[in-house]
Design goal:
Alpha-D-Glucose-1,6-Bisphosphate, Chain A, domain 4, globular, 18 helices, alpha+beta, Arc Repressor Mutant, subunit A, 10-stranded antiparallel sheet
Length: 731
């Protein structure tokens, strides 16, 4: 198992630039991030010619001409002279606007001197610019509301007409003929017949034997020798009702749309003044792309987002990882619960570049909580090389023909542009565009879901950056001593990092709402809603053998995500919440950095309580979207072997931990923040905690109520201790 993991890791880093004599990453023994000097920024926000033109229209300032003219009737009225800003002035003001839409007096004075304008002119230009963007946002919101209203009216009218002349398609009973005589016995037989037909259809679909249609999605994605050996054309015809040529044509159109969506500025995308994120101008999107709206309905919402950033991986390796479903899943372990390549439609170029490759894929996307349903999506992925140093990867859902299946999530053209920077880095511009069926979501998660953050481009980008950085630090051979304390050898460092990653991946798999699990809701005495699931391990050496019980609870806390993370990873305060350590003292044995943010690290703690020593391995990850702390008690002898460089695959580990998310609100009053002595308004946190225990060492044993009560007590007490320590018991 270890050999396969090492082989996969080596696949990522065959390029010499990433063996990381870390010429660009570790300078003078210090890890450095790529700077804007080495990476061109093109966020696609406000600016450029479009911004220049709109600014001239919106920001013309007026000044009076005080010169009097002689005339027969006395002095003429003063003429007003209009001042038109130069292109250079507009560019400078646009640049400041991106950083600070509300500049203070000092910034306005400095800019006015620099541009040769009065402070009043600068002030009015910024006012006009904010008004213009606000108007665009309001038009967009009004357009969306108007579209929803029209769809509701059409649906209402359709239902009214259907009620007048409706007849059940199964039993043939005319709903509108109330006065017609009805043979009760005949009617019951028709209803029973319709029910039996429905049962037969379900059984056929479950067995994959439905004539003229492909096997069920589950069986198609399970892999193995039992899959049908159909070709790409046959599969696409059976599953989608489309020929291969039609699929390739649709993907080509989607690729063009993705490139435009990733590179365009205004008026297609507008930068939000409040959040700094790009907002899609839906009216302009419809005008430019004329999307098919047949599947849009009043019960569907559209999520569109865009994000750009730099990652520690060269573009060719990144492209290979995206087109290999196993490597792609490893890049997004906390987001992708399941993934499979269902069918390869086109292999791409013979040179191994994946240029022109097209494949049908399935993915189950999740958040790290069982309270938010997963999103299952089928999509076609295509890779296209745009230039010598740039690639585009597009995902797009293709509807099944003649099938009224209720698809809950569809991908409109989404994906990323990858530009190689020739220094082991790549610049990524990510676009995520989803059409989702509206579903009931717990009130705690409603804001972050509706804002598009949960499954949006920022989440994908932040996760990719974190994982690429982890891989680079894993391969590093010249890591400074201060970034690898307590582990003497390079082999020991790699073995420890590999074990920590396996532990975290196990945690991600255990806590989501994936169909891997069946969750049972339990209400505790303290009021928390706890979800409980169990599984049996018979032979997997990565976990203890027996019945494993997992309990998960999610709560909102009036604490900023950063302040909550700092509290939970503070070794000196661990005894305030960690029940496993039983209030004993905590000593750090080893600390290994795995990212430029010192919060991204693997640590080994020793806790002493009642003359008993226990070692706890902890993996801490934080990025621009979320933070995770995963930990587990480990066998001391086994862990010492791992630190000496031995294989870690046989060391059983059962992780517990936390996921920390922002609550989706940009600001909230009375929130505890990380900024001491400041009353800054920040959003609160969504904290998900998971506990796992070995309920019975026999895999054949049944789950007992005692085990469920034990794990519920552990999780409830821990959450209560956290609330008490942070002084938010009434949250």
């Amino acid at each position: 198992m270890a050999d396969s993991e090492m082989a996969r890791t080596k696949d990522f880093f065959a390029a010499p630039a990433l063996s990381l004599s870390l010429a660009g990453v570790f300078r003078n023994g210090v890890a450095e991030a790529p700077t804007e000097d080495s990476v061109e920024e093109n966020s696609g926000g406000l600016g450029g010619d479009e911004a220049e033109m709109s600014s001239e229209n919106a920001g013309a300032d007026r000044s009076n001409d005080d010169e009097d003219a002689d005339g027969e009737g006395g002095a003429k009225k003063k003429r007003k002279k209009y001042h038109r800003h130069t292109a250079e002035q507009i560019r400078e003001m646009e640049a400041l606007f991106k950083e600070s839409p509300h500049p203070d007096e000092k910034q306005r004075q400095q800019l006015s001197k620099q541009l040769g304008l009065s402070a009043r002119q600068v002030k009015f230009w910024f006012q006009n610019r904010r008004t213009q963007i606000k108007a665009i946002q309001e038009r967009h919101e009004n357009s969306v509301l108007k579209t929803e209203m029209e769809k509701l009216r059409e649906e209402n009218q359709s239902m009214r007409e259907g009620m007048k002349k409706a007849a059940c398609p199964n039993c043939g009973y005319a709903a509108g003929l109330r006065d017609a005589p009805i043979n009760t016995e005949e009617q019951q037989l028709r209803i029973e017949n319709a029910r039996l037909k429905a049962e037969i259809e379900k059984l056929r679909a479950a067995g994959g034997n439905l004539p003229g249609r492909a096997a069920s999605p589950t069986s198609s994605c399970s892999g193995g020798a039992d899959q049908d050996n159909r070709g790409a054309i046959d599969y696409c015809t059976g599953f989608f009702g489309l020929e291969k040529a039609k699929v390739v044509e649709l993907v080509h159109v989607a690729m063009e749309e993705l490139v435009k969506m990733a590179t365009a500025g205004e008026p297609l995308w507008v930068r939000s003044v409040e959040t700094g994120r790009d907002i899609l101008n839906y009216d302009e999107y419809v005008r430019q792309f004329s999307p098919e709206t047949a599947n849009d309905g009043p019960r569907r919402s559209v999520e569109a987002s865009r994000e750009s950033g730099v990652v520690f991986m060269d573009a060719p390796k990144l492209v290979q990882a995206f087109m290999d479903v196993n490597q792609w899943k490893e890049l997004f372990p906390c987001m992708v619960a399941k993934a499979a390549t269902v069918e390869v439609i086109a292999d791409g170029d013979d040179g191994g570049t994946k240029n022109g490759a097209v494949q049908l894929m399935f993915a189950e996307l999740q958040m790290l909580t069982p309270m938010v349903p997963t999103r299952e999506v089928y999509f076609v992925r295509c890779c296209k090389q745009q230039a010598a140093d740039s690639w585009a990867i597009v995902d797009v859902s293709i509807d099944r023909a003649n099938d009224n299946a209720d698809v809950k999530c569809r991908k409109r053209p989404s994906g990323c542009l990858i530009q190689d920077k020739a220094n082991g880095h790549s610049k990524i511009t990510w676009v995520e565009h989803l059409e989702v069926k509206k579903m009931a979501v717990h009130s705690m998660y409603r804001t972050i879901i509706n804002s598009g953050l949960a499954f949006g481009a920022k989440h994908w980008m932040a996760t990719l950056q974190l994982q690429c950085e982890r891989l680079v630090f894993f391969m590093a051979t010249n890591v400074p001593t201060k970034d690898s304390n307590g582990v003497a050898t390079l082999a020991g460092r790699k073995s420890t990092l590999r074990l920590a990653q396996r532990m975290s991946n196990s945690f991600y798999k255990a806590v989501g709402a994936s169909t891997y699990h069946t969750w049972t809701k339990v209400t505790t005495k303290t009021g928390e809603d706890v979800r409980v699931s169990s599984r049996k391990n018979i032979s997997d050496p990565a976990e203890p053998v027996g019945v494993i019980v997992c309990a998960v609870s999610s709560v909102w806390l009036p604490v900023s995500p950063l302040a909550l993370l700092e509290f939970l990873r503070d070794d000196t305060r661990r005894n305030e919440w960690d029940i496993i350590s039983n209030g004993g003292s905590v000593q750090t044995i080893a600390n290994i950095a795995k990212g430029q943010d010192r919060g991204n690290s693997v640590t080994l703690h020793a806790t002493k309580s009642n003359d008993t020593t226990m070692w706890i391995l902890q993996d801490t990850c934080t990025n621009a979207y979320e933070s995770m702390i995963v930990y587990a008690p480990v066998d001391i002898t086994g862990m010492q072997s791992v630190m000496n460089g031995c294989d870690s695959s046989s060391l059983a580990i059962m992780p517990s931990g936390f996921s920390i998310l922002p609550d989706g609100l940009e600001s909230r009053a009375l929130v505890i923040t990380s900024k001491r002595n400041e009353k800054a308004s920040e959003g609160g946190s969504l904290l998900t905690m998971a506990f796992q225990i070995l309920a019975n060492t026999s895999p054949t044993a049944k789950l007992t109520m005692e085990s469920m009560e034990t794990v519920n007590t552990l999780i409830s007490c821990t959450i209560q201790k956290i609330r008490t320590s942070l002084h938010c018991e009434d949250a």
